Amino acid sequence: MNMSTPMVESLHSLVSGQSLSSVQRSQLATQMLSDPDWAVAFGVTPETVEDVIDVRSQLLPNLYPKVQQYWQDCQIQTPCIDLLWQFWLPLAQRLIQTHQQLNRPLIQGILGMQGAGKSTLTAMLCLILQQLGYTSLTLSIDDLYKTYADRQQLQQQDPRLIWRGPPGTHDIDIGIEILDRLRFAQAVDIPRFDKSAHNGQGDRSGFESAQPADIVLFEGWFTGLFPLPDSAFEDPPAPINTPEDLTFAQEMNQALNDYSPLWERLDSLIVLQLADYQLSKRWRINAERVAIATGKTGMDKTEVEQFVDYFWKALHPKLFIPALIQKPQAVDLVIEINAEHLPRKIYSGITT
Question: Which of 5, 53, 79, 205 is the most buried (most CB within 10 A)?
Fold first, then answer.
């Protein structure tokens, strides 16, 4: 949801210590109510919009310098003040409200394909939550990878598991133990994974002690996905092209059953949905090109396509993500990401 130049200037005026004029408040209120789904997701109604503007106006001047510095450190050129006002701050406030309603630590799941912005979003939320006086902790499904030795044994049993990542390559029991301890506000040891070990195959590098947190952000590329019925695979999309591909997809689908106890620990689930799932592959190709151009190691276009196709054969986003979003009470918030890596739509999940 784009903001006009005058409204962005109004936000900069707030940051510099000026008060909003009645005209500026009216413009902001109109803009905040212009997308009904976005407004409802963040509790903005014609009755509450003035109060929401007051609260955000009080918080923005203290938050913006820290957020802007992080944005600059990430070497992102686009302005961030409108994102802070419209997206990051209200999302952080939503998490705080849910945490307060639970009266215990919130376990917030975040699902997003590669390139959807999971890492950026969780980092920004942690930064804002800290400024608002709340502790947070980020946990990735990647932290739960099985050890190199265990995955080597797994690959001997199933040679198709050539890369870590699909269902079956994670230590689910450790994940359950971690989330249970965090739910009850207990300190916990979190496994850390070194992706560079064993020539890039990766291995667990040890454990890191973590203190209890008010809000736990648990992100991953298939966090919260549930198995689909067999009928979903009657006409599968590419790259599920061969009978062998189809068998692999169906078996990975069944393997999701093992993750259900882990997903049951989630209090809420946010889905970062790409406007076009093919964007994930394009972004990865561009990222690898940049890495190679700057003297780092990287994959060429063919290698990226093979890599991404492998994961799409396992859990195809065209099959699984729409089905998840359409399942009642499965998703609390959907954030649609456009080709510029920005939120285009935000709406609440289906409740009934």
Answer: 53
Return left, alpha or beta for 204; rule: phi > 0 is left, psi -120 to 50 is alpha, else beta: beta
Mean per-residue pLDDT of the chain: 95
- In this structure, what is the dihedral angle of CA atoms 311, 312, 316, 322, given to the nearest 10 degrees? 90
Q: Is 276 exposed, middle or buried (0-12, 13-18, 19+ CB in 10 A)?
A: exposed
Q: Which comes out higher in pLDDT, residue 263 or 288? A: 263
All domains of the chain in start order, with CATH: 87-348 (3.40.50.300)
CB 84 within 8 A of CB 56: no
Strands 268-274 and 106-112: parallel
Scan for tokens 């376990």, then name that residue: 107
Segment 30-52, tens digit of pLDDT: 999 999 999 999 999 999 999 99
Mind listing the pLDDT tens digit for each residue in 196-253? 888 888 999 999 999 999 999 999 999 999 999 999 999 999 999 999 999 999 999 9
- Measuring CA to CA, how many Å separate 192 from each of 121, 189, 209? 20, 9, 10
Nearest-angstrom CA–CA distance, 33 and 288: 40
